[in-house]
Amino acid sequence: MSDPRMARGPAAGSSDPRAPPAAAAAAAVAATTPAQASAAAAAVATGARTAHRHGQISVALVCRSNVNRSMEAHYALLQHGYHLVSSFGVGTKVSLVGEVPGGKNEFPFGTPYTEMAADLRRKGEEVHQRLGTLPMLERDARVKAAPERWQDARTARFDLVLTFEMHVYNTVVDDLRQRTGAQLAPCHVVNLETPDTHEDASRAAVLALRLVNALHAAIAPPAKGAEAAAALLARLSQHLPRPESTVGHADATHWEDKLPPLLEALENEIQKPIDHAVLWI
Fold it and tell me: CB of 205 within 8 A of CB of 75?
């Protein structure tokens, strides 16, 4: 297989991401328990791609430690009603700022966010409150129980993977190239280069949300009578084998076609290149 990376420089574009879908407004993170979020992520991690039942694209958000950039975006997407979302880190350990300049606190992946927060409170509650680490971990705990490592999710299959650093992007692309399976479905990996600060993570989460909103806007509702026809076809063909690659997808024909011009427009806006790779796994 040839190298799937398709780095793209800035290009002109004019389309703007659309507002969140109407159904999204009813959902809020406050109503989503870590157990519910984990259950949704587990459904994606099985490799079944259940997106078609929800009319949603399955999305993974990946940074180094799964505490700041990926979790800020995860929180934003959940807030707007997107529940086929998972988040990961690619580091060997979860790394957080230390109590003194240059110091750091490290935890194994899988350590609950609440436990990390408790440990930091013991070491220096005032400094970690001031640095924003404790509020960040409290936010994370409302999304899911603990940070997850990308390399450990070997069976996970996603339509779209958003990374926030070139090293992370390269790690994800290289890892996906090693994965094999019978589905042979496209996975789009997009890098939104983002410094690892709370402020930059917030800005990147807005960009991620706008991109996902716009892609979902391309998943058009069925035309009048199409639902009944689809139901009839399903009943007639229920005993026929169905290619696994078609199970669980949002309508790829439209949203995948819309992705390149959206990235071009976003590149123009932020004046930074956005790397994009397509892999078949």
Answer: yes
